[in-house]
Amino acid sequence: MDKLSIRYKLKEGEVQAVENVSFEVNERDVVGIVGESGSGKSTLAYGIMKLLPSNAYFKNGRIYLFGKDILKIPLEEIRKNRWKKYSMVFQKSMNALSPVHRIGDQIKEALTIHQPYLSQDEMKKRMERAMRMVNLPLRVLKAYPHELSGGMMQRTMIALSLINDPKFVIFDEATTALDVVTQGQILDEVKKLVENLGLTAIFITHDIGVIAEICNKVAVMYAGKLMEFGSLKEVIYHPLHPYTKALLKSHPDFLKPGEEIKGIRGALPDPLKSFRGCVFAPRCEFASEMCFEREPEEISVEGRKVSCFNLSEVSK
Amino acid sequence: MKTIEVKNLKKYFPLRKLGKRYYIRAVDDVSFSIEEGEIVGILGESGCGKSTLGFLISRLERETEGDVFFRNQKISGTLRLPKDTRRRIQLILQNPYDSFDPRFTVGESLLIPLRIHKIGSHDLERKRKIYEYMEMAGLSPATNYYERYPHELSGGQVQRLSILRAMLLKPDFLVADECVSMLDVSVRADVINFLLNFASLSKTSMMFITHDISLGSFVSNRIIVMYLGKVVEIAKAKEIVKNPLHPYTRILLSYSPVLFEKRKKIPIKGYVQPLLEKPKGCRFFQRCPFSQKECSEIDPKLVEIEKGHLVACHVVS
Fold first, then answer.
1. Is residue B14 in a domain?
2. In chain B, how many domains are there?
3. Nearest CB neighbour to A207, from listed B186, B191, B257
4. Does residue B217 form part of some domain?
5. What's the pTM value of the predicted model, to 2 decimals?
6. Beta-carbon separation of B257 and A257 below 8 A
């Protein structure tokens, strides 16, 4: 991803949903994207999948997927590969499944379209394997979506996204609605896939705990901008950006009883308005005059990226 | 004085399947009590009956069997409570946008309960009180927020207002049902701190229903862990985290994601399945990695293992 900007055209003006974001995801990487709601995480994911709504457009930048610039590949080819080579688990699985088809048929459809040479038996085997992976009983295959609970549908979506053994999967808040045990089980399964099959994944979530559990790289986003990017250890254990620090402070951890939690004052800026300076400055406790004047440039050292002026002060 | 005492509370939901009658045992024989000013966390996966328990205690749902006492006064058996008792028990729900009428300004929504319970002699006085609370909640200037509609405010702000609406009535007991799980982490911390401040100021007891162990142990003094309608463990929040005894609690803890430590997960089989038939033994038996022979035959009772630490498990006791 190179200097990617995505904007939404609205009646009231243009929304800068993603602004100059660049980072790399290598094979076998599991990258976590954290940020508050409205920070552009999902837009980014839709952009990579080329699934953006019609009022969105790519302002500038490039997305390379498996070495190819996806903005230049014809849609037909993307459609062929989507689901097979790369797939995505959506946030609202209830809306992603068809209410009038059985779950089994829906999963089977994904198989027949992309791998029509498989025998019926083989398909059945694959479907059963996928169901076991996400810890669902086989009877779910015969059920309609309305018969399932939200958690079960979410798991069905995850099974569906993994059925064609994709090389790259985006999980957009995929485990947020699930119970801890199920979530843990799915994270374990994804870990196994990464190790055994060389899966690459992007995890979009606002739960830092999940990120710490599964990812090896973390991107922190705020109001469409990349605040910090680096390996898990660096970002979570030695955060540089004040926003990352504040996020970590607001997350209670049961292994550290007695520690206080602190919220971040203020709210996300209005995405319709353009502003000067750093987007986080109004809510930042380290903000200096300069932060309101100019926008900080991205400082990049050994694969780690931070955009902030007051790094020396913050790290004290 | 005990603010809430629950004795052998049961709630069965009837279900018809293939002409046969079944019951879903949402809450099955639950007993515990909440002291004055105490915050008790109810922890469990979805479908374990924690929300039903909340509704039963706040008297929005009729029980099948058992008793609920509020300050030594029996409130079970009927849903018609004296107005004053209704005022003393308040509820905060998960989705703040659903608990405010979209056609009313938030100010009106806050004013109505005060009118109903005749707090303050006239509307001007009530309004002043609302302003005062709003400023305390960090919603200032209050006049600015009073005239707004719920959809104009952010989730964190509306949730703060719904806490405020409950607190305006000076309740003795508050049920908070997943009250921050919809909010962003950055906002969540503020709302939690605000709720705790308010509760400690007016010495309100609270039942904090959540599925998030980190949050539950941060907020509560004591934690009750539920599984399929049964209480499986009760202990001080610190005890639950440091020294969980019931296999289910241990599994839950091992699965919850944490930032600073890599732990080993305890493997678990199967998934939560609602029980239609009354089970003979322990409900967790089939999924439990430590299960013994007697687990499938006798339903374990809650036993006090250490002082204040109760567990329902054959293997532990």
1. yes
2. 1
3. B257
4. yes
5. 0.82
6. no
Domain with A173 in it:
2-85+166-314
Tokens in use for B101? Answer: 């009428």
Residue B270 in domain:
yes
A121-125, B83-87, B91-95, B269-273: range with lowest mean pLDDT: B269-273
Q: Which residues of A touch B271 (CB under 8 A)?
A: 135-137, 182
Q: Where are the alpha helices (DSSP H) in A34-119?
A: 41-49, 75-81, 93-96, 103-114
- Selected for mutation to probe chain B from A136, A179, A187 (highest B CB count within 10 Å) is A179
In a domain, A107, yes or no: no
Domain CATH number, residue B43: 3.40.50.300
Task: State the smallest CA–CA distance between residue B242 and chain A in angstroms.
Answer: 8
Identify whether A151 is part of a domain.
Answer: no
- Tell whether B266 is covered by a domain: yes
Domain interval for residue B19: 2-95+173-190+203-311
Name the residue with higher pLDDT: A265 or B302: B302
In the predicted model, is pLDDT for residue A274 greater than 80? no
The two tokens of residue A247 are 């996020």
Q: What is the tally of structural domains in chain A?
A: 1
Residues of B with CB under 8 A from a CB of A: 45-47, 154, 156, 184-193, 211-218, 237-238, 241, 251-261, 265, 268, 270-272
- Average pLDDT score over residue span B126-147: 86
Q: Is the pLDDT of residue A14 over 80?
A: no
Query: For residues B108 and A54, which has the higher predicted lDDT (pLDDT)?
Result: B108
Beta strands in chain B (DSSP E): 2-17, 20-35, 39-43, 65-70, 73-74, 89-92, 173-177, 205-210, 222-227, 230-236, 303-306, 309-311
CA distance A22 to A43: 14
* pLDDT one-digit tens code per residue, B259-312: 666 667 777 776 666 667 777 788 888 888 888 888 888 888 888 888 889 999
Length of chain A: 316
- Inspect the interface and report whether the beta carbons of B257 and A248 lie closer than 8 Å: no
Best to test chain A binding among B186, B196, B219, B220 (most A CBs inside 10 Å): B186
Question: In the beta sheet, which residues pair with residue A203?
Answer: A32, A171
> Does a structural domain hold residue A131?
no
CATH of residue A249's domain is 3.40.50.300
Whether B218 and A252 lie within 8 Å, measured CB to CB: yes
- Please indicate, yes or no, if residue A57 is contained in any of the structural domains: yes
Please answer whether residues B164 and B90 qualify as being in contact, where contact means their C-beta atoms are separated by less than 8 angstroms. Answer: no
